[in-house]
Write a structure and sequence with these properties.
heterodimer; A: mainly alpha; three-stranded antiparallel β-sheet; 5 helices; B: 135 residues; elongated
Chain lengths: 158, 135
């Protein structure tokens, strides 16, 4: 992916040299033309066309923001409720992610999810230990984490 | 236009202060380290971010000054506070802080006990480990 972006920059610079005008507008036009060229020649690269990955990163950022707002509302409700009828506990969450940065992002996302907080990662990076405010829906939250976050992170890394 | 932005700035700052207040309530009311950490690592993050966002918008519209340091501060807080929450709860767990009495499940404890009985530390609570790993 980094190689494709670098190639796109080089193509944009070549466009600037061909034009003989060195302003941001020329760079922008050259960048768009280079994007077109890279899209045309995408079958020669090993990885996917990099715009897909950029949109995946933006999607991940959107999920981060949404979860932050939702978790704040959930914690607010829990704290301001008159009775404290929570059932906390630690459950194990097996994960399919392998790279270190992927697991870091997953742990950060889980920490920002309503009612969950990562306590520990097992030594072989296979299991995350998550502290939950309400353990009753642990199974369901495992499923939802797997469905939304892991898929979104895999979309970036693959 | 300016009036709308003023209303937005007011909402941001007041909501952020409210969230910080709720965090303080949570730190007093909740029963143990881990549940308190929930309140501290989520509501405090959002509260500080909203206050900073309000300050940024205020200086941008009233003074025409876009302070990039505020944006950087927002992103740094956003990145670091979940990690801080994780590290505090992990340090608490490793130094043996008990969960709240009404907690219902503790997979990590079972995992640790199994590992201790399997690998080394034969003197470290072998009886408890045996009873735990038998079923």
């Amino acid at each position: 992916m980094a190689f494709q972006i670098l190639l796109n920059f080089i193509l944009a610079f070549i466009w600037m040299f061909l034009q003989g005008s060195y302003d941001p507008a020329a760079f922008f036009v050259g960048y768009l033309l280079g994007l077109l060229i890279i899209y045309t020649f995408r079958r020669f690269f090993k990885s996917r066309f990099y715009v897909h990955r950029v949109t995946a990163v933006l999607n991940l950022l959107y999920i981060f923001m949404r979860e932050l707002v939702l978790s704040n509302i959930a914690v607010l409700k829990l704290i301001l409720k008159p009775q404290l009828d929570i059932k906390p506990g630690i459950f194990a969450l097996p994960t399919d992610l392998t790279e270190d940065w992927e697991i870091t992002i997953l742990a950060n996302l889980i920490t920002l999810t309503p009612g969950t907080l990562v306590v520990d990662v097992s030594a072989d990076n296979k299991i995350l230990y998550v502290h939950a405010m309400d353990i009753d829906d642990a199974e369901q939250s495992i499923k939802s984490i797997k469905d939304s976050f892991e898929v979104a992170i895999m979309e970036v890394s693959r | 236009m300016i009036e709308i932005v003023r209303v937005i700035v007011g909402c941001c700052v007041v909501t952020g202060a409210l969230l910080s207040l709720v965090t303080a309530f949570g730190l007093i009311r909740l029963p143990d380290v881990y549940t308190r950490n929930h309140a501290a690592s989520k509501s405090a993050t959002m509260g500080v971010m909203l206050v900073l966002l309000g300050a940024f918008l205020y200086f941008y519209t009233e003074e025409g000054y876009a302070d990039a340091r505020l944006i950087l501060a927002i992103s740094f807080i956003f990145l670091t506070s979940p990690v801080a929450g994780h590290l505090i709860s992990r340090a608490a767990y490793n130094s043996g802080v008990k969960l709240w009495g009404h907690s219902v499940q503790d997979d990590l404890r079972e995992h640790r006990l199994v590992q201790n009985s399997k690998e080394h530390l034969p003197a470290c609570e072998p009886r408890e480990a045996d009873t735990k790993s038998q079923p």
